Amino acid sequence: MWIFEDSQKLRVEKSNAAEVKIQDAGGAGARALLLARHPRALSFFWNSPSPATPLLPPGFLRPAPDPPQAGRLTPILAFCLLLTVYCFLPTACSLFAASGLYEVREVKPNVFVWIPDDVIDQEADPQFTRAGTAGFVLTPEGVVVVDTANNPFHARELLYEIRRRTETPVRYVINTSSAGEQMLGNEVFVDQQATLISTSAAQAAMRQYRQDLARRLEEGEGWRLQARMRGFHVTPTTQTFEDERTLRLGGQEIRLMSLPRQEPSAEDAAVYVPGAKVLFLGELYQNQYFPRTGSRDVRRWIETLRQVEAWDVDTYVPGHGAPGGKRELAEFRGFLEWLVAQVETRIKQGKSLVQVKKDLQLPEMFHWHAPERAAEALEAVFGQLATAQRESVSRRTAQTPDPCRSN
């Protein structure tokens, strides 16, 4: 459920017409001030035949000629029309609002990307309140889904968009990572009898998340979490792969690759559609969003991005935000490189984490989405670089011979 606050302002233009005070027939209602710009129209409405006491003083408005009988608007008819509009207005507004919560973009023939708006979901784990970008590939023999957003409600929107385009079954669902933004909608595709796939490390992390969630639901204010995640069924993947796996479906080749390559503990996966030159990168690439760093080694992360920039790819699909090309991917890599350089320089100057945060106020320097993640990313980078510097100093100290020690 999303919460919207709509404020409507009525702008009334002043005219040369007199100000009319209107009181209801019973005399107990509140008074309203009407600035009449078209007296003839008001005269037509208020001078319609009615058994009630006239609401306007006699002679206040110039009398208008009686309109034809067929065009006469009686108070009963006016009331019915207003009631009808009032009843349908909430539905119309909700449909209008819902239509603007996500976009589906066909980036290449039969390759679609589901791009949610930057909305904080009320029905989601507070750790994962922003839906991640997802996608699907259509083939004559079935559909391949890449990531399922942060709750089953968005996953059903994704399935709805698939069903608008095809009735072929959903064969595979691939999770690019264990992050809740990418996998908490998995349960929707269990009913579709889809095979859920991820790296082994991501599957283990999903199972751990499910155990931790059960504990969180019983602790302290677990009732708040229960209210937000009522009806959720965390569903880890059912199959895993190591390093690389290729799916062939309906003449379409889809490659799954763990990143960084040839690293057994790698959790992130890329989904490459070579025929369309589209690469889904999940959490490894954020387009105009601050990243969730987690336990990723930021230097290896930068090197991985540099490698995939050289691949034969036209469209890179991020974990959050709209698809981009090589320029957008390079901009995100450039942000990580800049962050590492800035933090490393200040660590060498002996500055603390608090001082570095004060120097680098990221949300003010980069007007990106998810600003609450900026501090988390900076802390993670600071922790990694500070640890690396201490280890480097320790190694140099251990290798330096003691001049006071005799041979």
Strand/helix succession:
EEHHEEEEHEHHEHHEEEEEHEHHHH
Mean pLDDT: 81
Number of strands: 14
Strand proportion: 15-25%
Rounded to an integer, what's the Rg over CA atoms? 31 Å
Terminal-residue CA separation: 75 Å
At the fold tier of CATH, the topology name of the largest domain is: Metallo-beta-lactamase, Chain A
Summarize the structure.
By secondary structure, the chain is of the alpha/beta class. Helices cover 38% and strands 20% of the residues. The chain has helices spanning 39-46, 75-99, 152-165, 180-183, 187-190, 200-218, 222-228, 298-309, 326-348, 353-359, 362-365, 372-399, and strands at residues 19-22, 32-35, 102-108, 111-116, 134-139, 142-146, 170-174, 195-199, 239-241, 244-249, 252-259, 268-273, 278-286, 315-320.
Write up this protein.
- With 407 residues, the chain is α/β, with parallel strands linked by helices.
- It has two domains: 19-98, no CATH class; 104-326, Ribonuclease Z/Hydroxyacylglutathione hydrolase-like (Metallo-beta-lactamase, Chain A, 4-Layer Sandwich).
- Helix content is 38%, strand content 20%.
- A seven-stranded mixed sheet has the order 3-4-5-6-7-8-9. Strands 10-11-12-13-14 form a five-stranded mixed sheet, with helices on one face.
- The longest helix is centred in the last third of the chain and has 28 residues, at 372-399.
- The chain starts with 18 loop residues before the first strand and ends in an 8-residue tail after the last helix.
